[in-house]
User: Which sequence fits this backbone?
């Protein structure tokens, strides 16, 4: 942490502990420099996050808090240090300089309601789970392509994250075992996944799994099969958690007083609406004009919310 005055003179530096002791020491250091009669809104604070207990405590204290993207800090630091070397001291100095000289170009942390903050937490968690599932799906696809490409053709319609696909791959992760799957077994898995037109699709899957293709040596196939079973287990767990978190998103979003306003907009449903609300917040004073909100959108807030 570094404290500066309006001219850029360094007043003090310190390493603050986590928790109550750290925030208490920060208040004490600021009080020593400003005096007891100073107003908290005279204090500008730069921090590399827009959420968490520290941010909440700083906003509650009445300081003007600016959440600065770490990439912005790195670029600002490089303007003054040719080496661009990263350290806590250099980052603290860069943050202090940024809020002193460029606060008009930074985004101040708004006083969003606790309900809006809760919506943002669950919406981001839901999105992160979806991104994680996509990564594991890509890994599963890459592994199957190396030793069992027929599976990609077999499950092209049901998708690699479908419950029936994961069940069948867990039961038969290698070409030999998959070729022995009966139409009845495939149909049963598809029925549990609530598929339609099961008879035709099950016959097609069975035919694809029994297609002759170039294979890998047995030890390599066994190794790939073990890796696929691991990915299948992870995808099954992620499917469960994505669904559970989706319910949390809808529940928290549904309790927000502005929910009907968001849902009245064309193309916005529960999940996208929650992401938009979470990223834009609900502080009525955050955006002074429609243009300032649009500028925030142009800089990626809405694209992050709906990605």
Assistant:
């Amino acid at each position: 942490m570094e404290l500066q005055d309006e001219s850029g003179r360094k007043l003090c530096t310190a390493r603050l502990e986590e928790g109550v002791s750290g925030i208490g020491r920060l208040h004490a250091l600021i009080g020593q420099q400003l005096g007891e009669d100073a107003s908290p809104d005279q204090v500008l604070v730069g921090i590399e996050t827009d959420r968490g207990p520290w941010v909440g405590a700083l906003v509650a204290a009445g300081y003007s808090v600016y959440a600065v993207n770490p990439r912005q800090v790195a670029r600002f630091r490089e303007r003054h240090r040719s080496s661009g070397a990263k350290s806590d001291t250099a980052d603290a100095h860069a943050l202090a300089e940024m809020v002193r000289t460029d606060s008009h170009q930074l985004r101040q942390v708004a006083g969003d309601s606790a309900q809006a903050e809760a919506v943002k937490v669950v919406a981001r968690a839901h999105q992160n789970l979806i991104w994680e599932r996509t990564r594991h799906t890509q890994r599963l696809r890459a592994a199957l392509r190396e030793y069992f490409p027929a599976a990609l053709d077999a499950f092209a319609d049901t998708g690699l994250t479908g419950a029936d696909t994961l069940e069948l791959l867990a039961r038969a992760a290698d070409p030999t075992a998959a070729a022995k799957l009966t139409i009845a077994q495939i149909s049963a898995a598809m029925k549990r996944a609530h598929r339609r037109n099961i008879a035709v699709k099950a016959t097609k899957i069975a035919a694809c799994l029994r297609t002759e293709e170039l294979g890998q040596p047995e030890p390599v196939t066994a190794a790939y099969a073990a890796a696929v079973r691991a990915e299948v287990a992870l995808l099954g767990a992620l499917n469960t958690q994505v669904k559970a978190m989706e319910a949390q998103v809808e529940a928290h979003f549904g309790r927000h007083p502005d929910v009907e306003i968001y849902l009245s907009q064309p193309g916005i449903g529960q999940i996208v609406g929650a992401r938009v609300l979470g990223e834009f917040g609900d502080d009525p004073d955050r955006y002074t004009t429609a243009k300032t909100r649009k500028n925030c959108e142009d800089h990626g807030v809405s694209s992050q919310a709906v990605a």
Remarks:
- The chain has 15 helices and four strands.
- The two ends are 34 Å apart (CA to CA).
- The first strand starts at residue 2 and ends at 4.
- The CA atoms of residues 141 and 234 lie 14 Å apart.
